[in-house]
Design brief:
It is a single chain. The protein is mainly α. It has a domain of 68 residues. It is built from 3 helices and no strands. α1 packs antiparallel against α2.
Length: 106
């Protein structure tokens, strides 16, 4: 009889979710800052310092709000089994084949 290699479906550690949220926010916030800066620079009569300050305020609010939302979204999805089902289904088929094989060997 062959040994079955069981793949466990584990949830992500909360610290992994936090790390992913932070790394994504750094990238996304850089884009938000750049877009805000370009738009305010091009379409307003503000000085460079005022544009920089406005883009910084927008980016700061964006970081805080979206970091929290991303973390909550990630934690909700770690509890959803949809999309993980195929692993369980494949394991069940493997177990059925093993039982069938073991019964036919008797």
């Amino acid at each position: 009889m062959t040994k079955e290699k069981v793949t466990k479906i584990n949830k992500d550690n909360p610290w992994r979710s936090i790390s992913k949220a932070i790394s994504w926010r750094i990238l996304a916030s850089g884009a938000t800052f750049l877009i805000s800066f370009i738009i305010f620079k091009q379409y307003t009569d503000k000085t460079d310092n005022e544009v920089l300050q406005t883009a910084s305020i927008i980016t700061s609010a964006d970081v805080v709000v979206k970091l929290i939302l991303y973390y909550l979204h990630e934690r909700i999805w770690t509890n959803i089994t949809w999309g993980k089902y195929w692993e369980r289904r494949a394991r069940r088929r493997h177990i059925k084949r093993m039982r069938k094989s073991a019964n036919s060997d008797k």
